[in-house]
Amino acid sequence: MTEKIKQQITFEMSLDTNISIAKFEGGSTESNEIAIEIANRINNVINNLSDKWLSKFLDEVEKSNFDEAYIIFEENKGTLQHSRKVEDLNSLKKMDFSKLDALKRKDFLIFLILFSAMVNDRTDSLGYIDFLLKNYSDKLDADLLQNIILEKANCLANDGHINIARINYNKVINAEGVSPATIAWSYQGLSIISTDLDRIKYAQYAADFHFQSGNKMEAVRNLIQISNFKGNIDPKEAIVIFDKCIALYEEKSLVDRELLASLIHRKSNYLYKINQIKEALILAERACDLRRGLIGNEIELSSSLSLAEILAGLDNQAEKGEKYRAEYELLKEKIKDENFNLREKILGLISNSEFVSNEFLTEVLASDDSELIISTLLYQSTDKDLSLDDAMTLLEKCRVYAEKERNNNVLDVIYFSIAEKYRVEGLYDDAYVFYTKSLKINQFNQSSVQNCLGMLFQEGKWKQAQTFLEERIRIIGELPNVCFFYARALLEDKQYQKALKYFNKSDKSNPKLADYQSICIDNLDDSQFESMPIREGWKETITSDIFFEILKEFSNSISTSSRMYFWEKGEDKISYKWTKNPEEKSKQLLITFLNAKLGFDSTEIIQECRAGAGFIDLYIILPGGLKVIVELKMCGGGYSSTYALSGESQIIHYQQNKTTNLGYLVVFDGRTRDYGKGFKEIQNINNHTIYAIAVDMRHTIDKSI
Known about the structure:
Shape: globular
CATH topology of the domain at 544-696: Trna Endonuclease, Chain: A, domain 1
Number of helices: 30
Strand content: 5-15%
CATH class of the domain at 544-696: Alpha Beta
Radius of gyration: 30 Å
Largest sheet: 6 strands, mixed
Strand order of the largest sheet: 6-7-8-9-11-10
Structural class: alpha+beta
């Protein structure tokens, strides 16, 4: 009897991410090829669900049967949730909505505005929004009205009207009764139009309110933006943020598996950037493992294979690199994507040291792949046969594309390339501007540091050199080598006392150091003094991470000063047991601590707040409006770890009955042997984000520590 082989295709689609992933189980390689074709066809069918009815819709519009066209639209508009096609939006725009009655006109306009945002084509949206707000604002419910104003801010930001956009974003944030999701998107908009620290601040607020509304994916997207910025200043902090994002995803679904792989790939790429090759290779291989066996992510898998090949080569593992190259070559034959094929042609030209023909460049520019366009223009600008004007024209095009896309991964290279062109031509002031722009994005671009500093010293531009080095010190700290060059610039500028201070912080093995120090001492006078900077305390909105650090501070204070307040001697006068009502005591201590730390007037703490079938230990509204649930549990000394962990499910239950998906579990852990075991610092369960912290309550102290 022939044994039957079970074959199965699982297909998943995420509307939030517009990702479609499939998996084929059972069968041969040939069967897998068929499965890929089936998955592609399913994806095409879903993406084109609206084609047939839109054709009928357009026929009625053509005949000026606008009411009939509206009926067709109303019956079928739900299928457009799967569409990201501008052609579908353009079809809807052919409707003359002025011919509809007032109610239909309002509903059609609302859909047009929201669908325009979904397909990211806001060409006519401002006009639609102004018409809607002028004629129907009193007929929109409060949250929808704020979402329309939010979309107006997005349109204004898109068109470069930053100040008016900022006013509208803040109008939404400060309105009464706005949902956490709407606040999150408003902060996200503010982050996009802001710079530097403000951008990071608003991204953190956006992440917090996305967590509160249960939108894990957008929260993570904002955290990644923060990591991208922090990565240029503090690699350790950037890695912590990456790890936090990765901890929030598991392999429960095919889409989550791909999203997890994407985060791990990003972290690998970052470690590669800061030259942590071995660690980067381990993560690249992990990303490859996660992406293998899935259908619909072939381009993403090819990216991870290519990264793993590069890293293996850098780690002197040639055989492993060849293995990844061979797998990449096999995979690319299965990829039917025009932009991917264009990329392959560009890579072929680069490997053969050939440049792009005008015809091929036109083909690349006509694609919708901004990264491909940027990379091609950047590579083409390195052609030594180009005139300066032609090379700068290419780099300017490149810069415009990258700045529009906020593509920091390549902007630092573009700015460096522009700076080099200016430096070679002797235009040092212009070169300086672009060197500093390059380093603002990527502090690890040592070529920018060396070339810029060499140019400033060569030209005797000591004031500019000081400004440049002061910024380097601000970013990376007073490293001995940086201090030496800063002192040199100060010395040449006759600032002897300050120069001596920084020579004293320089590398003592430098053979010229003693001579320079002597020059400074010989020229000291009493007129040169330095002012000490004054650091003010923080007065900021409390973010989820700041609140977690506050809870850690509380934990440390209890462990070091108050742990024995919770214990009393047992009847045998040797053993210990918890005092009466330890959870109530812990709660009151936490309330006292938070009021002292944050101030009575800035934080609202609600005790024993009802939520569904239970009572929340603490429901807290933090400065800035973030709402969190805090559950306190005892563990050890008669309280089981199962009881402590039940706090997680209680938090989720309470979150389901409150307007927040953000919670904190504080466990007073008195287990002698298993202290701290079983608790995850951060986890996300069905879009409910929970932080956990174990307070060391062990009544016996290890004297060997």
